[in-house]
Design a protein that fits this description.
Layout (H helix, E strand, L loop, with lengths): L5 H12 L6 H5 L11 E6 L4 H15 L3 E8 L10 H19 L2 E7 L8 H14 L3 E5 L6 H16 L5 E5 L14 E4 L4 H9 L6 H4 L1 H15 L4 E6 L9
Parallel strand pairs: 1-2, 1-4, 2-3, 4-5
Antiparallel strand pairs: 5-7, 6-7
Helix pairs in contact: 3-7, 4-7, 5-6
The structure holds zinc ion (ZN).
Length: about 250
């Protein structure tokens, strides 16, 4: 694998960010897109709050640009509220996810696995592939697989396998969460300038009240956004790794 230079990254980001809905530039030009102007973007995450914290700004930008945005949750975060049973926590975190989606302009979809006990096997591969096939996405954002949380590893590999089985029919981008603590060894290929929508991203993350976002995770993402912004030459950015293979749109 050749090393991408800093200059390459900045060139890529500059081209992407000039497009308004930043990651859309290459995808929008592809002839197979159902509607060249309206893309379907599916952001997948293991738990309510993952996609919002890693890619919430990009989701808001797509929604604002008139594209359809879906937030696909592998679990409902059932194990994520100390002292609360799975059913009650799942209901609470589903309500928080719905609130976050309203803020970002996304529609929530739930795959049906259980937080802390996610599985990667034949049945689960098929389940995620079916869920993605129903949505017919142009672009999928998912978690980076080199991550300390097993559920994050699970959604990453389930989505990757679906992408292979669906003939690489959508552009696949990975996002980072709590980089250094959860996501590791993440070297971006693309950046999205989120300055104009960062306050909505913050509100969407703060909607996950049960996760103590004000103290526990949003400040870290604010630092990441500033750092990625510095890398990309803007104030605040989200960073992505784009899979370099896609079966359509090849030049
Ligand atoms: Zn998570």
């Amino acid at each position: 694998m050749s090393e991408m230079t800093r200059r390459d990254v900045l060139c890529a980001s500059a081209a992407i960010m000039a497009a308004g809905a930043p990651l859309a530039a290459a995808e929008a030009a592809e002839p197979q897109t159902k509607d060249a102007k309206r893309l379907k973007v599916v952001a997948t995450g293991a738990h309510p709050d993952d996609a919002e914290s890693g890619a919430g700004g990009t989701m808001a930008l797509y929604a604002d640009a008139g594209h359809e945005v879906v937030s696909m949750y592998l679990t409902r975060g059932e194990a994520g509220v100390p002292g609360m049973g799975h059913d009650e926590a799942g209901r609470l975190r589903t309500a928080e996810a719905e609130a976050a989606c309203r803020i970002l302009g996304a529609r929530a979809v739930y795959v049906g696995q259980v937080d802390g006990a996610t599985e990667v096997n034949g049945k689960r591969y098929d389940e995620v592939r079916r869920a993605l096939s129903e949505e017919k996405p142009d672009i999928v954002l998912t978690q980076w697989p080199i991550d300390t949380h097993r559920d994050h590893q699970a959604i990453a590999i389930l989505v990757y396998d679906a992408w292979l089985r669906m003939d690489k029919s959508f552009a696949l981008y990975y996002y980072e969460v709590e980089s250094g603590v959860q996501s590791q060894h993440f070297w971006p290929t693309h950046y999205v300038d989120i300055e104009t929508v960062e306050s909505r991203k913050e509100q969407a993350c703060l909607a996950h009240k049960s996760q103590n976002p004000v103290t526990d995770f949003y400040p870290m993402h604010q630092r990441m956004q500033r750092f990625r912004g510095e890398e990309a030459g803007v104030k605040l950015a989200e960073a992505f790794v784009r899979h370099n293979q896609v079966s359509r749109g090849l030049l």
